[in-house]
Specification:
Blueprint (H helix, E strand, L loop, with lengths): L14 H6 L10 E7 L6 E4 L2 E7 L1 H13 L4 E6 L9 H4 L4 H12 L4 E6 L12 E4 L5 H6 L8 E4 H17 L4 E4 L6 H11 L8 E6 L6 H6 L19 H14 L3 E5 L5 H10 L4 E4 L2 H12 L5 H15 L3 E3 L3 H8 L1
Parallel strand pairs: 1-3, 1-4, 1-12, 4-5, 5-8, 9-10, 10-11, 11-12
Antiparallel strand pairs: 2-3, 6-7
Helix pairs in contact: 2-4, 6-7, 9-10, 10-12
The structure holds zinc ion.
Length: 342
């Protein structure tokens, strides 16, 4: 029955009616707040391209975590800026690594807060890649002269050897009090390797949230400043996904589930809402999405110019991610949005 019998505006007349028929609601219980931990004491250094986001020393991180929890945010995810970087990502898996220290301090300060640990090697590698790097096999002189290799074929990110370091990192984080292991490196087989390692270390109850469909995205720009993890050469396109591929994203997710992931993630969020929706239709695991640094920076920059209404755009962006099907949202807005929802 069409107009004039049907008038959709009838249910939009008042906030009470609009609220009654609202299909999607945001709640702070969906939010995960990302934090960057750095060496030192009393350090609270704002990330230039992410106003309102800080590099925090362990003591400051504990305070920040307590505040997020008091606002109703149930979880944080930790990233680390180590004192030193090397070719084996020692800082990622060392017992006194920066994230391990932070996890212990935060667990002590706020025992009920869920601590997720991002598992990757890039922040701890001197070259800034997410796995072990090996120079590619030298070509014959004739071939090299005929077709000089582009920079991207001069080296290789070694998949299987990297798995060992990722597994070692996961065990170390779980032992330090990290509740959820979240691998973000995009090596093949890492979820299985991590599950196996955790189980053999007596950590069978530690869940894995896998960054299952992580795209090679320009929206990560500001994060690399925040986590000091810019690759020193090349890019991450040989392991992170091509932004054009939805079907491949479904395969990535499927494989991570087969390997033992307990929760899955799509990253970034807003430029990939269709991927979130497709994953939500297809898989029954709790689905997370990461509203990444570039998504945050764009909103902040426009708001600073008074070109947009910051609060409304912030809430609309989070609502769109929720509506697409993400149950869990990793967002730098976790605290601000929780305040508005209170
Ligand atoms: Zn990485």
């Amino acid at each position: 029955m069409a107009f004039p019998i049907t008038r959709l505006r009838r249910l939009r007349q008042s906030e009470q009616l609009r609220s009654m028929v609202r299909e999607t609601r945001l709640s702070p219980t969906s939010f995960v707040y990302p934090m960057f931990v750095c060496p030192g004491e009393g350090v609270r250094k704002e990330v230039r391209s992410m106003p309102g986001v800080f590099n925090l020393s362990v003591d400051e991180a504990a305070k920040e975590a307590k505040q997020a929890h008091s606002l109703g945010v149930p979880a944080i995810i930790l990233f680390g800026l180590p004192e030193k970087k090397d070719e084996l990502a020692t800082g990622a898996w060392a017992e006194d690594g920066i994230v391990q220290q932070a996890a212990r301090a935060i667990k002590h300060e706020v025992p009920k807060l869920i601590i997720m640990g991002d598992v990757c090697l890039c922040e701890y590698m001197s070259h800034g890649h997410c796995g072990i790097v090996r120079a590619a096999h030298p070509q014959s002189l004739g071939a090299a002269v005929a077709a000089p290799p582009p920079v991207t074929t001069d080296y290789e990110i070694v998949n299987d050897a990297s798995l060992e370091l990722l597994a070692r990192t996961s065990i170390s984080l779980a032992r330090a009090g990290v509740d959820v292991i979240a691998p973000s490196d995009m090596m093949d087989g890492r979820v299985g390797a991590i599950r196996n390692a955790l189980d053999h270390a007596g950590l069978a109850s530690t869940p894995i949230l896998s960054y299952a469909a992580k795209f090679a995205s320009a929206f990560y720009g500001p994060f690399r400043e925040a986590a000091d993890s810019t690759p020193q050469f090349g890019d991450r396109r040989s392991y992170q996904m091509d932004g054009a591929n939805l079907r491949e994203a479904m395969r990535e997710i499927e494989l991570d589930i087969e390997e033992g992931a307990d929760m899955i993630m799509v990253k970034p969020a807003m430029p990939y809402l269709d991927v979130i929706a497709a994953a939500h239709d297809r898989f029954d695991l709790p689905l997370a999405a990461y509203q990444v640094s570039g998504e945050y920076a764009i909103i902040e920059a426009a708001a600073r110019n008074n070109w947009i209404d910051r609060e409304r755009v912030m809430m609309e962006s989070l609502l769109s991610i929720r509506r697409a099907g993400a149950r869990i949202i990793l967002t730098y807005y976790a605290k601000d949005a929780a305040r508005l929802l209170a």
